[in-house]
Amino acid sequence: MLPYLKSGAKELLKDLVYYAAASVLCAVGIRMFTAPNHIAPGGVTGLSTVINYVFGCPIGMMSLLLNIPIFIWAILQIGYKLVGKTIVATFFVACAIDLLSVVIPPYNGNPMLAAIFGGFLDGTGLSLVFMRGSTTGGTDLIARLLNRRVRFVSMGKLMLCVDFVIVLISALAYRSIESALYALIAIFVSSRMIDTILYGTDVGTGKVIFIISEKNEQIAKEILTDLDRGATYLDSRGAYTGRKGAVLLCAARRYEVVKIKDIVRSIDKNAFLIVGDAGEITGEGFREARSDDKTLRELLHKLQHEKK
Length: 308
Description:
The chain is of the alpha+beta class. It folds into two domains: 2-199, no CATH class; 202-308, Alpha-Beta Plaits (2-Layer Sandwich). It has helices at residues 2-34, 43-55, 59-78, 84-99, 111-131, 138-147, 155-174, 177-199, 216-227, 256-267, 291-307, and strands at 206-212, 232-237, 244-252, 272-278. Strands 2-3-1-4 form a four-stranded antiparallel sheet, with helices on one face. Strand 2 (232-237) and strand 3 form a beta hairpin.
């Protein structure tokens, strides 16, 4: 019991350190670069930036207030256990944005540089949050909840639609098409930073997870719903008991492993998990097959056909 408590305390401390670092990075990106240059790069924070420009409300406080109904919606839909970390991370970021505003000097130079560096800092900060299996609410959480209703639309497209609406609102508020274009550049830079930090230079790598549980069907449904990840049932038979069953196989990004563990433990505390490295994952949701991979498969197929 004591080692378990020590492990839990260590993970909690690690979460808080990551959230604190992410909060500072996001605060600098917003207060120094994007907000002073009328750039609202999507998400709840972007909408809060627009409200700050129009009404003068603090960006961090507005971000937290706008996230409250989203959190309530999420708790009702997927439970408080999966939303708890997101609430803590959002609180950290919101407080940092407002508290550090008195010490962060605004940059009022080239808007292009503001969009690039703002997106860079925002993406880096969000990556630290994602590494701990959490989010900062807003667009990501809205898209995940909407995806439960409209399964035919991917998470990525839903997030893009929500961000696009907010960027459009910012263009109307600032009365400037250029502000919207700079916001799109900031979103692009931020997303590229997230991909680079979380996935590395090769986005085909990841983790492979084997789950052995009597509640595999429920676990698979939650993984599909909350993470938009597929899973596969593998027939199995216990060597000792001889009892037949099924093993759930799931390929995931590295940062998604923590989320999957949370899902499994919330459903079945006695589940058996095996997490391993996947040197390469090719297919939907990961890297597309390279041309040389296709050429090699075609060559092998041709050789097999000639042997026949």
